[in-house]
Amino acid sequence: MRVRIGAVVAVQLFALASGASAQIVTGRVVDQATATPLSGVVVLLLDSADRATEQSLTNQTGEYRLAAARAGTYRVRMLRIGYRPATSHAVRLAAGLETALPDLVAGAPISLDTVRVVGRNPCRAVGDAAATFAIWEQARTVLTAVQLTGRARVVGATMVTYQRTLDPGSRRVREQHARIQTGMVTRPWTSLPVDSLRAVGYVVVDQQNATTYYAPDLDVLLSDTFVADHCFRIAPGSDARRVGIEFEPTRDRRRVSDIGGTLWLDRASSELQRLEFRYTNVSDAEQRAEAGGDMQFARLANGAWMISRWNIRMPVVEVRYVAASGYRSRARVRETHVTGIRVEGGAMALVRQGADTLWAGAPMILAGTVLDSVANTAVAGTRVSLRGTALEATTNPAGVFRIPNVLPGEYTLDVRTPLLASVGGLHSVPVSFADSAAAVTIRVPAMAHVARSLCGETAGGVLAGRVYVTGESSPTRDVKVVAEWNEVAARSESDITRGVLTRARWLESRTDGRGQYRICGVPVNTAVVLRAQTDTGASAPLELQVSAGAPLLTADLTIDQRLALNAVLSGHVLSDFNGAPIMDVEVAIPALSRNAFTNNEGGFRIGDIPPGGYQVVVRRLGWQPLRLDLEFAANQTIERRLLLSRVQILDTVAVVESFVLRDFEENRRIGLGKFITRAELEKMEGASLSTVLSGVSSLGLTRSNSGNHAWVSSSRGSRTINQRCYEIEGSSAVDRLQGKGCKCFAQVYLDGMLLNSGRENQVVPDINRISPSEIEAIEFYTGGAGTPLKYSALDSQCGVLVIHTRRFRKDP
Fold this sequence. Notes:
By secondary structure, the protein is mainly beta. Strands 11, 12, 15, 16, 17, 18, 19, 20, 21 and 22 form a ten-stranded antiparallel beta sheet that branches. Strands 3, 4, 6, 7 and 8 form a five-stranded antiparallel beta sheet that branches. The longest helix is centred in the first third of the chain and has 22 residues, at 130-151. 36% of the residues are buried. Residues 7-20, 117-122, 124-128, 490-500 and 650-656 have low confidence and may be disordered.
């Protein structure tokens, strides 16, 4: 449904009624006690039938000037806010002459403090209740003064007008457009004539389903027709500070859309402060609940009046026809849904008469401070913006920001600290803005929280930032960024045999559409080399170190196309049988004495390869070695998917049947543990032992940060009896720092030999150093009660893992 306001929001110019043959009456209004001239007093010219034929406001010297359309007998009536009306004696105005009257003295003061709400009066309360009539007269006086201020055409104003769309649920600003206007502005809209509104109503839907909301202007509110069509009574919400007069349509208007509302006056001064209205007699409940408007009034320094703020709210209603409930029902029922609330309004900023400032609105500045949520320190250089608008500011070194020209309302503040901006992050805060008096305090997430939001619970640190190309101002998308470091090798027999002391590790990422990258799981307190590289250039290597106390580190990289770097070889090693990744495969370039070992996903990477041709060797015990010749160029990254074949066992080689396997079959028959046979192991060719065991219920696994090492622990929660800290084979400094050795570890038997007894001087074995291809069978028992006597020992309550390796002999 489309909505539109049935009014013209524009600068209104009014001309004084005058004529060459007019009959003029002049005079002055003064205070009774001090004889001081009074400005801003409403003066009416009444004919012989007591009808107002002309009206005016007294100027700053208390003078007025009224013109009668024809000669005759007239009286002058004075309406001063907070006072009872006063009327002059009758005077004869001759054709074409000017008559001066003696000073009019203001009437007796009127106090609304004595007005009390005694019940909900029936209609016709204006004519029946003196209190209601007194309040209405004071309100009408202000409305008349506002009308006359505009007609005087001597007051200029600067105002801010706006169009908003609000979310129907939260009332927060979804979109807003505003502009500044200057001119002789006195009222925000002009409405249809009161007789037309009486006939067609205030809410009209045309044939195109567009709804027009007509708001009452001053002419409508001051008309006798409006009074005749509405009931008036003192508002029940009146209190010691203010008093209100409610109005609602009479009963004979119930079939025509109309308005109801409340005029609120200050009890002490009798000044009209606010008019609130809503639409009544409309079909949709959403319109009754959401549609309406309000006006606020202000007195100028020269005694004149104006509307200082105004708005009209119009719900945008979507109509749907859905199937009615019920068995086999084909009927469709009408449903309405509010998709947004459109608001048009404005606020006066400055009112002047010549060089004099008559009124100035308080500067609407949204101010606040941005603090770190943990350290409680100021965050400088933070960009704070109002969502849906073009308004924003940046915090100073004290963390303070100021956003001028903000209209009152419910907003969402988007906060981007330098840290959040570097990783493409955003912190949003809802804020309710009513005036400039109260500053807001925004606490942004600390570095650890930002790292967690970026990478979840992934262990280790985070590297993030942007990648640029030399000479370009915008970050570059789809660029590979790699973080490399060396890790102390696992203390396995194969490592010791090969003399491996460290292993190269790496993590990589690509920049997104905004040119930002993010690498999670970077080891802390470890030297890491970070670089970005394309086929045409690279960034200079940047050495960084993420600390445990500051797990998020940001760094921008710049690719220089003139900078030629060495090549990179990367890829994955897979089994040619089932495509499964093979871990712990050595990929080496013998001529350069460079090598790397595949991770648990079969991935490898060798960097810093000088241009030229080299032989690459791929090998792992139990697999057929692979050799290939590759040619490398500067800045080139070669990616390969390498397939290895298992070493075939000769037919003359057979497995020796032993008492061990007979024990395995007997234990499996009893069924007290979990059992894995050779046939099941063959289905997971190339997988690590931890991957094989991950499917065993009641068996817990503790993995290293690199993912290459794993240790068997209890999966049944904390076991305080045996939960000590142990040395764990193959662990890194990060693993130890994170307390991964402080678990309830299972005992591990390898071919009947206990590898760890559970005592503190024992090393917990890394199960991934045993290849599943070398294993014939596996047993696992969750605790001492169900463990066979042969494997039952002290400290076995955290589980027992029994591994039987394959033993071969040649047939004679």
